[in-house]
């Protein structure tokens, strides 16, 4: 159990996408976050109180969350130094990086000296099964994307909130480090051996018979050469009834790959539907989620309207505009199974 409240780590970061774990916790679990730790050269903030490790402990913080995602998920020297300082001040340390805290001898020694705990969030369970593709009961929605880091987790969490507000039973199923920290459970899919990816999703989203929805957080993109394998296994394991396509309209190229152009929305949607049909022949698209945070309100509204017209699907920014248009489509498509008679808009 990772103890809260949290102190969120920004360190030396100047990449907004790179602090998505810390930002996600600040947005979706604000009650559990007491402040942020950042060095003077960090140009980013979560609009939380800036604190030293000692100040955070005095304010009640229990765990420093290394909420940054650098290339390759590496535990660099600066992170190790800061983590040791946090331990010495009285904090546990949690990390979702690929490099494990437990594999850094100086951190293990510091934690042992001071009686602190180290939490590696990217540790998958040891009993993951191989996927079977066997049809299972229940309703499942998966968010997919044109690229990685385009808002799939935000869209999924916003859908969970929106569906619950309208009387639907809906549960977020986390597949990444940030989502796991927010939800308290899940599977770190990018740390799972390839043969077990689809089985891991079958495990965290088993059959259900309560007419409720499992809302499964997407990962990567079928069009990203580095991460398409994870996306493929996720599509097969999710056995999704519904897909929501997520996209960042101002991104000029695939994240980390300036030599790869962004794919089109229509081709991305068709590719995901085609792959998903292996285990869910009747899968359908129910909406498009855009990250319009870099656009004006007028630009965002116009783009959503144009996208909706072009694809014939409801389009919205889930965080800025809400998710009602997508929920309306879900209700219309799956009314027989969704107990919609009791719903009010």
TrEMBL record:
Superkingdom of source: Bacteria
Domain D-glutamate N-acetyltransferase-like C-terminal stretches: 130-326
Domain annotation D-glutamate N-acetyltransferase-like N-terminal: ranges: 46-124
InterPro entries: DgcN-like (IPR011669), DgcN-like_C (IPR035086), DgcN-like_N (IPR035402), P-loop_NTPase (IPR027417)
Name this protein carries in UniProt: DUF1611 domain-containing protein
Species per Swiss-Prot/TrEMBL record: Sphingomonas ginsenosidivorax
């Amino acid at each position: 159990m990772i103890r809260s409240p949290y102190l969120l780590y920004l360190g030396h970061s100047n990449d907004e996408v790179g602090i998505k774990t810390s930002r996600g916790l600040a947005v979706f679990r604000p009650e559990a976050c007491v402040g942020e730790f950042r060095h003077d050269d960090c140009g980013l903030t979560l609009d939380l109180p800036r604190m030293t490790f000692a100040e955070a402990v005095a304010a009640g913080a229990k765990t420093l969350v290394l909420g940054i995602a650098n290339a390759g998920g590496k535990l660099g020297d600066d992170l190790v130094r800061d983590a040791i300082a946090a331990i010495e001040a009285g904090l546990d340390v949690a990390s979702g990086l690929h490099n494990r805290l437990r594999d850094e001898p100086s951190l293990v020694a510091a934690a042992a000296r001071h009686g602190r705990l180290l939490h590696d969030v990217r540790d998958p369970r040891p009993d993951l099964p191989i996927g079977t593709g066997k049809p299972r009961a229940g309703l499942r929605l998966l968010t997919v994307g044109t690229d990685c880091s385009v808002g799939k987790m935000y869209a999924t969490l916003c859908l969970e909130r929106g569906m619950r507000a309208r009387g639907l039973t809906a549960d977020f199923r986390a597949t990444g480090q940030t989502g796991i920290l927010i939800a308290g459970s899940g599977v770190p899919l990018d740390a799972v051996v390839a043969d077990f990816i689809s089985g891991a999703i079958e495990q965290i989203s088993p059959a259900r018979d309560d007419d409720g929805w499992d809302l499964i957080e997407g990962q990567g993109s079928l069009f990203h050469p580095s991460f398409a394998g994870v996306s493929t296994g996720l599509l097969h394991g999710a056995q999704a009834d519904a897909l929501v396509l997520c996209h960042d309209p101002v991104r000029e190229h695939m994240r980390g790959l300036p030599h790869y152009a962004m794919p089109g929305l229509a081709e991305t949607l068709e590719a995901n539907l085609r792959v998903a049909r292996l285990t869910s022949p009747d899968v359908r698209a129910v909406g498009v989620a855009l990250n319009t945070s870099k656009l004006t309100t007028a630009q965002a509204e116009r783009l959503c309207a144009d996208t909706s017209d072009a694809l014939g699907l409801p389009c919205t920014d889930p965080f800025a505009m809400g998710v009602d248009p997508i929920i309306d489509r879900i209700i219309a498509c799956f009314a027989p199974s969704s107990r919609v008679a009791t719903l009010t808009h």
